[in-house]
Task: inverse folding
């Protein structure tokens, strides 16, 4: 039997009726000991006996490609093959199955695109041969600068923003620029492939296995049923592993050609060009307000980029449609077509940079109005979706702002900038709101119940988000079993298709499927006991009905029961606007001599439905806030203006925030009961914590030293250039 639920409206709240006490508690990750002791096998580990090794050869720039010394490479000692199959030239597409993924071998779309695979008996031989490859490229200089290209796209308009700006008591028209960014996951993209007859198994590092299986099948020209993908442990993805990338396809093709397993791992510098980047952006934000600080006009227009034939456009303005009320609105994206590496989803696509820029603009408006920035936000919270009139399923922006402000100590803040100094350091605080759309998607799960306990099966992935722990909690809670009697199997396409990890929908979607599978088992147990499922209590391995207790093992009598759950998104998303809300608070110190910025403390206040596991949720928030620091202060890809190749393509030159950059991070969860989100009442949390975090830091920089940085990241040279316009600070008030 399968229990299927289509989420069309409000869902019943079932979890509080459970008695095991697992959901909502801080259980540790079941797989944690394996990871910290090095026993959890990642994609390129546990290489099969007889495995060959492949290294990708790449083009130096866009244009017509030829491999001049292919025969000499193939004759090198230890080289097994020089593979140039068109199916191998796969971009890290998202949902790309059935969309002609093979681009051909004779033209490179951008600098760094793979054009061949060298396979050898050892990694070292393959590496040396790949370095010896002579790739010739013919063609004119590529178009690589988004600001110099024609653009596509028109904004959505409501009312007359131009008139609102002219007639407003206060009007703000500012432009922010953000650089391209890399996902920079710790585990590089890797794959080991082997064939058994006409079927292939690929152990790789991917986020969305049910889609990745179809993408691989499409590339290989076989039915998806003949493809098995294994990704039980993924060392980070951040969007870069949503779609299949060249190493997985190349490994499968080479393994078939050679009749033996093949391992292909992207080198770190390859990862920075071969997989998705976040698009750079140029964002024009216009705000018109009356004397009381209520918005009468709102404009948010963004310029992003991608390759000429790619459909993805960074959804920068996604949250601006519903974040704040304003009668006159102009919102939209334009896309420039350039020969830079493929742009796709990276760490909360859209809102991560869109909300951050918008929240900096809101801070600028608050300063112009001489109004507390929290008060400005509170008085512009909409009653319903400002453009569609949809009601909100739940709205907690006011609570996250006010509760966060109290915990942070916002009330002690002097509103004027450059008022607090400690030696060479100016000290300031900043705030920003956070918005993120909330999604639920189709997912399936199976639970097998035996006398030994319960086993959860789904091809859902754990990319460091705590999936193993959360699914253990849900199954144990619903079936009345302690944590130690629940095991979870993930990351195998032979298992029921889960939602995959992306869009912060994994826990709510696949978790709901697990809950439905457990409900199926509860009904089977109730049938054996001759009672209604609603009258059944399962706790500590016992079934309780009225005044009777019986161990579940006795009810099973040695049998094995299987429950199957299937959740589908329905019409709920059309009936209400679902979103998650947060508020970031930061204290920053700015050195008056060097321009260095140090974040001294941060607090995030979040409302994301039921928090299934505060420990893993807090960890996700810490990660998001850390990425916000990186976005504000350190991160940015640099492209060569001549050919578009990435200049800083490793972790030495692409500066992600490290331990020394990150202060103590405080996380506060606001209680939220949103019955529109599905049976678990859970919402996404990881990506919410990124949105706006950088704005709180940048707003704190302005409050500290009076300098507004609109071209990110706020590196020391930019801060110093702003400080140069200020008078020499007085010593009064210094410590």
Result:
């Amino acid at each position: 039997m399968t229990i299927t639920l289509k989420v069309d409206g409000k869902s019943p709240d079932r979890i509080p009726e459970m008695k095991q006490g697992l959901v909502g508690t801080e259980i540790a990750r079941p797989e944690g000991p394996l990871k910290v002791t090095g026993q959890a096998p990642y994609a390129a580990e546990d290489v099969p006996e007889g495995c060959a090794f492949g290294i990708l050869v790449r083009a130096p720039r866009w244009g017509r490609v030829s491999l001049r010394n292919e025969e000499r490479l193939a004759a090198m000692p230890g080289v097994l093959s020089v593979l140039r199959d068109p199916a191998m030239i796969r971009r890290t597409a998202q949902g790309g199955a059935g969309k002609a993924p093979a681009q051909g071998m004779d033209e490179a779309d951008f600098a760094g695109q793979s054009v061949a695979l060298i396979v050898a008996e050892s990694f070292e031989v393959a590496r040396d041969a790949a370095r010896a490859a002579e790739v010739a490229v013919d063609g004119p200089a590529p178009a690589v600068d988004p600001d110099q290209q024609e653009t596509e796209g028109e904004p959505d308009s409501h009312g007359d923003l131009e008139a609102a700006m002219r007639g407003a008591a206060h009007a703000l028209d500012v432009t922010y620029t953000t650089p391209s960014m890399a996902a920079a996951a710790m585990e590089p993209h890797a794959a080991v492939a082997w064939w058994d007859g006409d079927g292939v198994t690929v152990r790789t590092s991917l986020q969305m296995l049910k889609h990745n299986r179809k993408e691989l099948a499409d590339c290989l020209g076989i039915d998806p049923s003949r493809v098995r993908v294994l990704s039980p442990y993924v060392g980070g993805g951040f969007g870069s592993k949503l779609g299949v990338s060249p190493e997985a396809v190349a490994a499968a093709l080479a393994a078939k050609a050679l009749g033996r397993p093949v391992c292909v791992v992207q080198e770190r510098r390859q990862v920075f060009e071969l997989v998705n980047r976040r698009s750079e952006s140029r964002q024009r934000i216009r705000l018109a307000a009356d004397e009381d600080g209520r918005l009468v006009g709102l404009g948010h227009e963004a310029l992003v980029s991608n390759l000429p034939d790619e459909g993805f456009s960074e959804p920068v303005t996604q949250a601006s449609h519903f974040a704040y009320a304003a009668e006159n609105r102009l919102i939209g994206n334009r896309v420039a077509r350039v020969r830079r590496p493929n742009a796709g989803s990276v760490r909360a696509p859209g809102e991560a940079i869109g909300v951050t820029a918008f929240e900096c603009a809101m801070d600028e408006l608050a300063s112009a109005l001489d109004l507390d920035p929290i008060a400005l936000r509170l008085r512009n919270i909409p009653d319903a979706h400002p453009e569609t009139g949809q009601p909100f399923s739940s709205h907690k922006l006011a609570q996250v702002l006010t509760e966060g402000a109290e915990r942070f100590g916002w009330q002690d803040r002097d509103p004027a900038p450059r008022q607090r100094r400690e030696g060479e350091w100016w000290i300031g605080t900043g705030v920003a709101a956070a918005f993120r759309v909330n999604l639920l998607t189709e997912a399936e799960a199976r639970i097998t119940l035996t006398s030994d306990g319960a086993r959860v099966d789904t091809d859902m992935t754990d990319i460091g988000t705590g999936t193993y722990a959360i699914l253990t909690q849900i199954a144990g809670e619903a079936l009345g079993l302690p944590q130690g009697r629940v095991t979870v199997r993930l990351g195998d396409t032979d298992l029921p298709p889960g939602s995959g990890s992306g869009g912060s929908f994994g826990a709510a979607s696949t978790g709901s499927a697990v809950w439905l599978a457990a409900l199926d088992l509860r009904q089977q147990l109730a049938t054996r006991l001759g009672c209604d499922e609603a009258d059944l209590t399962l706790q500590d391995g016992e079934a309780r009905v009225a005044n009777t207790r019986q161990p579940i093992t006795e009810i099973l009598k040695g049998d094995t029961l299987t429950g199957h759950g299937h959740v589908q998104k329905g019409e709920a998303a059309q009936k209400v606007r679902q979103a998650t809300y947060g508020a970031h608070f930061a204290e920053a110190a700015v050195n008056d001599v060097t321009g260095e910025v140090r974040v001294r403390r941060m607090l995030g206040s979040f409302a994301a439905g039921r928090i299934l596991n505060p420990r893993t949720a807090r960890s996700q928030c810490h990660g998001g806030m850390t990425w916000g620091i990186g976005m504000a202060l350190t991160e940015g890809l640099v492209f060569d203006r001549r050919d578009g190749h990435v200049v800083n393509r490793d972790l030495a030159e692409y500066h992600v925030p490290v331990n020394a950059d990150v202060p103590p991070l405080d996380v506060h969860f606001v209680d939220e009961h949103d019955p529109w989100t599905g049976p678990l009442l859970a919402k996404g949390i990881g990506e919410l914590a990124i949105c706006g975090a950088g704005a709180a830091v940048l707003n704190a920089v302005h409050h500290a030293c009076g300098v507004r940085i609109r071209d990110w990241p706020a590196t020391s040279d930019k801060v110093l250039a702003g400080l140069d316009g200020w008078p020499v600070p007085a010593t009064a008030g210094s410590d």
In short: Residues 730-735 have pLDDT under 50 and may be disordered. Residues 288 and 677 are 34 Å apart (CA to CA). The chain is about 25% helix and 25% strand.
